Amino acid sequence: MFQINTNYQKLPGSYLFSTIAKKVNAYSAANPDKKIIRLGIGDVTQPIAPAIIEALHKAVDEMGHAETFHGYAPDLGYDFLRKAIAQNDYRDRGCDISEDEIFVSDGAKSDSANIQELFAADSKIAVCDPVYPVYVDSNVMAGRTGTYDPKTEIWSDVIYMPCTADNHFVPEFPKETPDLIYLCLPNNPTGTTLTKDKLQEWVDYANRVGAVIIYDGAYEAYISEENVAHSVYECDGAKTCAIELKSFSKNAGFTGVRLGYAVVPKELKCGGVSLRDMWARRHGTKFNGAPYIVQRAGEAVYSPEGKAQLKEQVAYYMKNAAAIKEGLKDAGYTVFGGVNAPYIWLKTPEGMTSWDFFDYLLEQANVVGTPGSGFGPSGEGYFRLTAFGTYENTLAALERIKKL
Ligand SMILES: *Cc1c(COP(=O)(O)O)cnc(C)c1O
Predict the structure, then answer these.
(1) The domain 12-48+305-402 belongs to what CATH superfamily?
(2) Which of 74, 150, 178, 214 has its CA 20 to 30 A from that of 296?
(3) 88: CB partners within 8 A, 6+ apart
């Protein structure tokens, strides 16, 4: 008789975004005349840039001719894309990363969920709290997180590193030594980041205690401040202790197209075994999950036209972010983020939980955001708004919030 992986049963109730969808649908059904503005979900809205569309068309046409047809993609991804990544995202920034350390994938979500398979079942994980929920969820399914307390929303075997206004959202080294440290920088949902010096301290710490940093740089393109690192490999010694995950979703609008990559340096080893060679055997994405057509689109992200067009898209979202931040400040809210990431993180008004504020905003302003508690126990009392809407809708939402 087959047995199931009972770790799946440990996942708490319903996923954050399905609870939100249920509440919004119920409200809309009861109030069909109300126009709801969504500043909640972390999905982009701007169309794919023209330079990328052109590359897609060209690649599609190639698939229709025997001489230019492409079948299964190479395991690590096509050379043309891995070279463009290594040059533009690393070597141009002084990071010594080569194309054979880059693994093209169908996105950072799958990579961030799958990467834990490289590590022992009893590995201890540390996460910033609050953070993107995939890191904890994938470790729950792998059986690493112990038992869940629904009251505190805490897993017994996860090391939480609280990031709140009290510590300026900068995690402190945990008391208990972790094996894996997840760092999402700039952070989803708080929008905050670490200075290069502070990140160097984390790299030194990981090397000292023998931990691996899983560095999620999905929002790297939004970094506007000078003293913030764009890659963990800008830090000395990062190649012996860090894996970096990147995505084309938030900087190039690929949430529906699907493309990302992982960097696993050759120097990253455990008892002589190379993690890079292990990841080359990874399952699930044997042919890396990214089609030829999409990898050509990814290459266009690094063309001069592509770069210029995407810079404009990021600027568009960051104009929204600035408007949200200013508007909320004018309305008397305490706000964070919005400078190096398209996320605004606000404190809920005195006496309101994250979900109280969700209901209040939905019912009184018909604006949908995301309760901070959905990103971890320390997110309680906070709320996330995203800059991915249209400028017009963003301004309209702020007008409504100001009137409350
Ligand atoms: C959106 C997001 C991702 C998802 O990236 P995909 O490439 O679309 O899978 C990864 N990490 C963080 C922190 C994100 O917010």
Answers:
(1) Aspartate Aminotransferase, domain 1 (3.90.1150.10)
(2) 214
(3) 302
